[in-house]
Design a protein that fits this description.
Length: 693
Amino acid sequence: MQKFLLIAVLCFMNTYLFSTESLPCVSVFATPEDVGEATAQKIMNLILDNQKKNKKTVLGLATGSTVIPVYTALKALVQKHPIDLSNVITFNLDEYVGLPSFHPQSFRSFMFSHLFDALLYSADNPQGIKLENIHIPNGTACTEEDLSTEEFAALSQQFPHRTQGTSLTQEESFWILHQRALYYEMLITQLGPIDLQILGIGRNGHIGFVEPETPLSTKTLMVQLSETTRQDNAHFFDENLQIVPQYALTMGTETILQSKEILLLATGAHKAEIVDKTLKEPISSAIPSTALRWHRNVSFFLDQDASSLLNSPPNRLVKRFYNAYLLLDHKIQEGELWVSEGKIVPPQKEADIAIDVQGALLAPGFIDIQINGGFGCDFSRNPESIDLVAKRLPLYGVTAFLPTVISSSPDQYRQTLPLLQPRVYGNSGAAILGIHLEGPYFSTTYRGAHNPQYIRPVFDETTSIDQLYGSLQGVKLVTLAPEIPGALHLIQYLKQHHILVSAGHSGASFDQMKAGIDAGVGLVTHLFNAMPSYHHRNQSIISSALISPSLPYSLIADGIHLSPETLSLCWRCNPDGLILVSDSSEALGLPNGNYRLGTMDIEVTDGKVYLAGTQTIAASTLSLDQAVRHLCSMTNCSVVQALEAASLKPAQLIHAYPSKGTLDVGADADFVILTPDLHVKASYIGGELYKTP
């Protein structure tokens, strides 16, 4: 019988958890052996279930001390309850570079010694796993003898002047290893997806050999091992750090995240700190294991020692905000807000901290789903500065946002998107919930301030989305023109991948817009801007948005993109669909002057932003709290309606609700304290007061 100390999900209220993440199911066992037995049983059950469905089983396997009890238990299970393993395919996470396959510390030797030798197909074991179904990266590329015939031919073609019969240079060796990484990734794609990926974890948060600061968008690759990793593995090499390999081949984070299910194992007190950080720290390449929280089917199996810090999550104090007015149930009402462990909780018997807000209004934190940058950072041009923007947006009440990338070149997308992936900053900044891709599939007539050289007025189905964007990982929203050739197929594709599609920069007729909605369009981007003007006979996108209560639309309420009368018209026609966005440029928070929007030069004068030398409006300097105030003053809508247009409605639109956009019990404790005239007094993120940079 398994000796569970704690079974199933720990009710671990992570301060930094947000809606685009999934909380891992954490199970705690008494000993490493119990972890091994539970994991082995899980593997066994998966194989049996797939056999009943006449399906193969694809396993992702790990090496190291943590998994030895797993393989010991699995061999015992198979011996006690023989099963057919002939349709099981395995892929190992990684392998050292430079060790011969027969070296006792190579991962190939490890896997055969601890698992495969006992399970391998043979005349005596006809139900065993087939040798051709076992896949382990090949890290030997020092001499020509290490190469296959195909590899040798490719090497000779790549380096036509090399001297045959000599050892490989480092450049030649690295080239071969890179080709093997590509081939390994291709095999996983062809034979996968991986049904269950088993992972260990390094003290620095590496999974596989994905070391800190390796981009989270990487696939199988060669990496240089960190000193921490090499020191941790020195005991396998007689404590001689000099002979510990410096490089390895490893699945990348993106490869791992493509698995149907992930199971991370950690045992021992020395893993407690990194397990704690993996569950609590912001998702970033600094701790690669934090990326596992993006996966919707991930579990942690821990022993008691590895879980020792989980019973002391941060921010456990109970806080009571009183003498307050709260936006709850679509109305403002007098009441109290109780917060603990980053969440809004029911009233408690007592509070550790009581905060008198002196009659102020508490509203859900604002969510900006279209923001191009701010404070000198343009997400399409210098995305590496996104932390600066995230850490200043709470000044305006924004606690979460979608960084927006305008029409760009394929190379720029590949450089930009990995740096804008979802992550959180605790109480020091607004959470990134995903990416908004505005373009490049637009009408050339209504491109607005986008560079014409990057506009694609046709969606060519022979060109894959990955060829353009590199990857759709982290993308929440795509704005495109539904009338361009091929757009309906693209809309359907994006919808199938759970990406919201918005119509914008478009000359679509009413009928073309209807076809787009039928295909999956669920939003209109900055209504009235970058589209045909309203015409009483020739209806277009504007009519679609204003007469369809079920179709949301965003507005830039700065008094520049739209006149007060037009803003009021939108409100009166379809108040339920109105969502506020800032569409701010890098000039947000900066004085008048010359700036850039993507690759285009812009000029800012008295808050108005134009393409340099033209009268074409180019983004804004608007903040979202200003947009809320403008909506109230220009339309005479209620305070509740204006606040919900910047919080509840965008949260619902991008499926961040009910974690965000509300003050209901169970939601993230992200809220703003406002003055009577709706200026921001303070922002709270995860129940903690925002730290001004």
